[in-house]
Every structure is written in structure tokens, then in C-alpha cells.
Amino acid sequence: MTPTLVRHHRYADSSAPVDAGTRARDWAEIQERMLAPLYEAVYERLEVGAGTRMLSLGCGTGLALLIAASRGARVTGVEDDRERLALARERLASGPGRDPGRTDPRARLVGGITAAAPDGEAPYNLLTAFQPIGCADGDSEGLAPALASAVPLAVRGATVVLAGWGPPERCATAPVLRVAARLTESARAPRSGKGWRPALRDDLEEVAARAGLKPDGSGRVSCPFGYADVDSAVRGLLSTGLFDTAMRATDRTQVEKEVAEALHPHLRPDGTVWMPNVFRYLVCVT
Fold first, then answer.
1. Would you say 253 and 279 are in contact if contact means Cβ atoms under 8 Å apart?
2. Is the four-CA dihedral 95, 101, 107, 111 of positive or negative sign?
3. pLDDT in tens, 50-96
4. Burial code of 18-46, b = ≥16 C-beta within 10 A, e = fewer?
5. What residues are paired with 195 via a beta bridge?
6. What is the pLDDT averaged over residues 173-192?
7. Pick from 116, 93, 94: nearest CA to 103
8. pTM higher than 0.85
9. CA gap 96, 84 in Å, rounded
10. What dihedral do alpha carbons 144, 146, 148, 151 form, nearest 10°?
């Protein structure tokens, strides 16, 4: 699936705070689709289809679930962000021939791993954690424990897929993300938040080892970030949460300004923004 440029999105008032619902919708409408090539590549490699019973950790607003369900898989998504979870339910309830407010019968959405236990069905045979790690301090800390909690819900020898950012030199978005660290440091704010840091070669393997998983192959996928304009790019990038610490250290208006300036090298003559990136995935078995 080739990512398309998202439509124009603008703030009504740049100085006004963005509520959680607005940011979740920015993620759903602008940013989440940038990872669609990653989902497609993994599903193609693993031949995801009618025999797949997938548990997706950090499922966001449900795009990866929709793609898997369209291939015939039965899917369960876990998401602790209530606003994103609500949008995922909206997405999975929409579609021709479905009753409003009723999710796809092949899909289930829950707010925690404990609620994801198979209900009268066979255990999962595929676990995914598509939220990329490797670009923020501590962004993998909770992943190994989450995987350890999820593995007992799967069959023995189930496949597990982890995702992460590729090398900084292959990711045009890396210098833009670095703005978060610079603003945080310039304000002498505590480094307890998710400040940018370069992806390391063995990020995914280290998580797999901590979770007791056995690596069984890997791959790289091109996931260019394409936006209709700078405003849409800023909204999409801020919806990731990677700039939250910088916004607390300074303010949202300052962060928006700095991010917009960092995007200028990627601005094309027609006003669109295009940043080539490479993401990596690791296939493991339980």
C-alpha cells in the first residue's frame, strides 16, 4: 500500500491547547497511515489470513486491525489511550452492511491485556507490537512486560512481531524529531520524558531477549511520511506524543514553530511535505 498525502488540517487557534480527542483524531486522520506499508509487508510475509488470530498491542486507532481483518484474520486490539480506543471502535463499526455502533464480528477492542484473553475461542497465533520503538528515551521500557503478559494468551510457538525506527541516516524525519530533545534541553527540563534519541542496531533484539522471545527473521520497509502541507505535518507529528516533554518544557506554540522550521528542507514546490523513512521489524517465536 502506497501512503497518500493527507488532506489539509489547520488549527483554528494556534495558541489554544489541543485536547486528547483532537490529538487522537490527528493521529487517526494524519499520522497512522504512514505506517501502512509496514503493516502490509508484515502481513504479506506471514501470510495473514483466515487462519490468523491476532492480538495487537498498542493498536492505536485501529488501522493495522482493519488491514488484517480485510485479509480474513480475527483480531483483538489493546489500547490504553481511551480516545484512540474510541476511534478504533468507530472505524471497526463503519463499513457497508454493518449496523452503526456494532464492530466487525472478527474484531475485538479492549483497554488492557487482562481483558484480551480469548473468549471461548482458540488462543492467538500472532502477536504484534507495531508502535515503533527506537526514537525516544525509554520508549521500550513497558514493551517487554506487556509482551510477557500477552504471550500466555497465545499458542506455543506463536509468532511475535516487533517494530522500530530504522537507522537515523535512513530516516529523514530523525532531524525533525531531534527538535524535541533540543527544546527540552534548552529549557533545562528533566530528562524523564520521551526525548529523542537515535535508534540503535539491536533495539528490537534487546526487547525480544527481555521478553524471552526467539528471533526468527527481520526486515526493513520504506515508510515515507507525506503531508498535504506544513500545518498537516506539524499536527501529525505532534499527535505521536514524541513532543510532549518539549511542550511541557516550553509551550505548544514554540514547539509548532520549531517543528515547522525543521520541516522546510522537506517542503516541495507544490507545498507538500515528503520525508523518506525506513522502519525495521523483527519476527520472533514464543
1. no
2. positive
3. 999 999 999 999 999 999 999 999 999 999 999 999 999 999 986 54
4. eeeeebbbbbbbbbbbbbbbbbbbbbeeb
5. none
6. 77
7. 93
8. yes
9. 22
10. -130
Closest CA to 283 of 170, 126, 79, 132: 126
CB 279 within 8 A of CB 168: no
Nearest-5° Cα angle at 96, 94 to 102: 40
From CA 25, how far away is CA 21, in angstroms rounded? Answer: 6
Position of cell 531477549?
209
Residue 270 confidence class, pLDDT cut points 50, 70, 90:
very high
Residue 41 one-letter amino acid: A
**Pairing, β 154-165 against β 278-285:** antiparallel
**Averaged pLDDT of the chain:** 88
H helix runs in the chain, sequence order: 20-26, 36-46, 63-70, 82-93, 143-150, 174-186, 203-210, 230-238, 244-249, 252-263
d(CA 58, CA 80): 7
Specify the pLDDT at position 15.
Answer: 43
Q: Is 92 helix (H, G, I), strand (E, B) or coil?
A: helix
* Cβ contacts of 227 within 8 Å, gap of 6 or more: 5, 6, 30, 233, 236, 272, 273, 274
Please tell me the distance from the alpha carbon of residue 187 to that of residue 97, in angstroms, as a whole number.
53
Mean pLDDT of 268-284: 98
What does the block give as the cell for 224?
515515507
What Rg, from alpha-carbon coordinates, does the chain have?
Answer: 19
C-alpha cell belonging to residue 180: 524535541
Closest-CA residue to 126 (of 53, 207, 45, 47): 53
Give the number of other CB atoms < 10 A from CB of residue 279.
Answer: 24
